[in-house]
Amino acid sequence: PAGYIRYNIFLNNTTSAAAVHPIAIACNPTNGYLYVLTTDSIYIVDPLNNSVVGRIQFGIPTLNPTSIIYDPSNGYVYVAVNNSDIIAIDPTTEHVMASIPVHGEVLQMIYVDGYIYAAVSSSNSVVVIDPANSSVVAVIKVGSTPMGLTTDTDGKYVYVADFGSGEVSVIRTANNSVVANISVGGFPWGIAYDPSNGYVYVAEYNGRVAVIDPLTERVIMNISIPYGSPRWAVYNPSNGYVYVVVVNTAGNSVLAIGPNNTVVGDIQLGFLPGGITYDSITGYLYVTGINTG
After folding, report:
1. Are the C-beta atoms of residues 101 and 85 closer than 8 Å to each other?
2. DSSP state, 225?
3. Confidence of residue 17 (pLDDT cuts 50, 70, 90)
4. Among 50, 203, 210, 236, which has the minimal tally of Cβ within 10 Å of its Cβ?
């Protein structure tokens, strides 16, 4: 089966939303721990027993966090805040280890071969951060309003969903240069790479998923979404499916796209979804529910 909701994990340990607003989520691939970003905290969840095992409070309610990522090289979590900076936090001490200016709003970050790539939507750029010295080592101009990021298996290329210009920018990581701009014709939001076929799947807010063959740098097909607006996308190596978060006034869901590029499953959520991540320890996908707690 394409999937179903197995557990609901409430961050406030009740069945009430109670002012907990999950925004985004990241995973520690070593132990499977989930880091759930809310408006004022990072909740640490142990997925093996579905319990909250820690909470890092920012102490400043005006940080306006938007994105989070885990860095396996140093064990820190990085959080985009204030539409201007990325802060590095050590979860073991709960201390802020560094603040890195990026001068804009960041909606997604990915970790690629020791570096953090951050899509800065307000400046139409991707910022590359070296966690070893907490510095920006490159600023790459891409299309308008970059949102989602993904990388291929070898980390040789980063693919950027440019929402405003309706294209996907391709970055060669060896020299951090844009080597292609692939038009998808819609409003690309999330993006995922499928290593089983080498294709890139682009979730377009206007109701479809574009499939790109990076070898030809062309869209080879468009998958119509039966309803709603696709947002984030993630690849699940456990079954080879690409999962797409879909927002719809009549009902929110996660759609599963099979290797034959057809929709093979529709998982109804019952809440407004935020971020999505895959946990290699449990083999499950985790979706944050905005205003659900």
Report:
1. yes
2. P
3. very low
4. 50
Q: How many CA atoms lie within 13 A of 154 on its CB side?
A: 6
Categorise residue 135: left if φ over 0, alpha if ψ from -120 to 50, beta otherwise: beta
φ/ψ of residue 50, rounded to 5: 55, 45
pLDDT tens column, 107-156: 999 999 999 999 999 999 999 999 999 999 999 999 999 999 999 999 99
Paired strand residues for 232: none
Taking phi over 0 as left and psi of -120 to 50 as alpha, with beta for the rest, 39 belongs to: alpha
Look at 266 and 200; give whichever has higher pLDDT: 200
Cα 235 from Cα 7, distance rounded (Å) = 20
Task: State how far the Cα of 175 lies from the Cα of 92, in Å rounded to an integer.
Answer: 34
pLDDT value for 58: 83
Helix (H, G, I), strand (E, B) or coil at 122: helix
For residue 148, what are its two tokens? 């989602």
Q: CA-CA distance, 25 to 70, in Å (whole number)? A: 9
- Of 218, 231, 224, 228, nearest to 261 by C-alpha is 224
Enter the tokens of residue 120: 């800065």
Distance CA 197, CA 155 (A): 16
CA distance 139 to 160: 14
| H or E element in which residue 141 lies | strand 135-141
Is residue 17 within 8 A of residue 267, CB to CB? The reply is no
CA 183: distance to chain centroid?
Answer: 21
Q: Note whether 198 and 220 are within 8 A (CB).
A: no
Half-sphere exposure of 74 (CA within 13 A, CB side): 18
pLDDT (0 to 100) of residue 6: 73
Closest CA to 151 of 183, 119, 106, 103: 119
What is the average pLDDT score of the chain?
91
